[in-house]
Design goal:
Layout lengths: L11 E2 L13 E5 L12 E3 L2 E8 L2 E5 L2 E5 L3 E5 L4 E6 L4 E7 L1 H7 L3 H6 L11 E3 L2 H19 L5 H19 L12 H15 L6 H8 L3 H12 L3 H19 L4 H7 L5 H12 L3 H7 L6
Parallel strand pairs: 1-3
Antiparallel strand pairs: 2-9, 3-8, 4-7, 4-9, 5-6, 5-8, 7-10
Helix pairs in contact: 3-4, 5-7, 6-7
Length: 297
């Protein structure tokens, strides 16, 4: 089994290249079996949504610097821009499902639906489902239907694919068990979700909790209280988490100097950026960069 490693320049796949797609890429689904380019043990990112349906595999998946075990019947959800790489002790079987952001928004056109979807968005913390054999076998025919439709050239095939994919994602959503499942969600949940989406859109623009509160038409105290009730963390901590994630991604690419990364993240003081990073990550930016240049088992 190959180690997962960090190349000097993290590759970015702008369109899915599994099935020879071109710049007008919308959707594809391909089998994992028999593909010489898989697994991809090097860290890379995509400009499209990516689902890894592991019918049979066993190994390690690094996703935004967190490690997740790959087991038979695992389903991984990777959003555009996330860094990941994976390996397997033996040839994996299953599917890779890839679709453009525009295709995803056609499935969930309303922001409220997208905010409640538990897998893809960086605001969510559940990038994998470990299915039981029964759950896997019940959903697998949907993948076969998508594969069959996508391989044809019938009119409106993407409409049919989109419908099957929506059913698949909805059924997977039913199987999702969030932290504290069974408890009544607090009223603060919706506000916190909208706050997390705003962070993703504006973390390089907004400088304070007050900026976000103004966009959400609440006081900064109400926003802080809602976030604390829902997550156990402060609003400022969630903003810092997103900035730190981007810093880690840029450090792993090794294209920019630490000073350039500091500037890109809108830190006026390079020394303050280094102190901020070390306080939250327990290592300096240079130490982090060095560590993630080495292979990860």
């Amino acid at each position: 089994m190959k180690d997962i490693y960090f190349p000097d320049d993290t590759p970015n796949f702008e369109v899915s290249d599994f099935s020879g797609a071109h710049a007008d890429f919308v959707f594809d689904l391909v089998k994992l079996e028999g593909r010489n380019e898989l697994p991809r043990p090097f860290l890379h990112r995509h400009s499209y949504y990516h689902i890894l349906w592991m019918s049979n595999a066993r190994g390690n998946h690094v996703l935004d610097f967190d490690n997740y075990g790959i087991l038979p019947h695992s389903v991984f959800f990777i959003s555009p821009g996330q860094i990941h790489g994976w390996n397997s002790e033996f040839d994996a079987s299953g599917y890779a499902i890839n679709f453009s952001p525009e295709f995803f928004l056609q499935i969930f056109p309303r922001i409220e639906e997208l905010a409640d979807f538990p897998f893809f968005h960086i605001a969510n913390t559940d990038p994998v489902l470990y299915l039981t054999p029964t759950e896997h076998d019940e959903l697998y025919p949907l993948l076969k239907e998508i594969e069959k439709e996508n391989a044809g050239d019938q009119r409106w095939r993407y409409d049919v694919v989109r419908s099957f994919l929506q059913i698949l994602l909805t059924k997977l959503r039913r199987l999702h068990k969030p932290h504290g499942a069974g408890a009544v969600l607090p009223r603060s949940y919706s506000l916190t979700k909208r706050f997390k989406f705003l962070i993703e859109q504006h973390y390089l623009e907004y400088g304070s909790v007050q900026d976000y509160a103004a966009r959400l038409f609440v006081t900064d105290r109400k926003l802080n209280d809602a976030v604390k009730i829902t997550t156990g963390r402060t609003a400022t901590q969630l903003i810092h988490d997103r900035i730190l994630m981007e810093a880690k991604r840029l450090l792993a690419q090794s294209e920019l100097s630490i000073a350039e990364i500091s500037y890109r993240l809108n830190f006026d003081d390079f020394a303050y950026f280094c102190r901020f990073f070390k306080k939250n990550v327990q290592m300096t930016p240079g130490e982090f960069k060095k560590k993630f240049s080495a292979p990860l088992s």
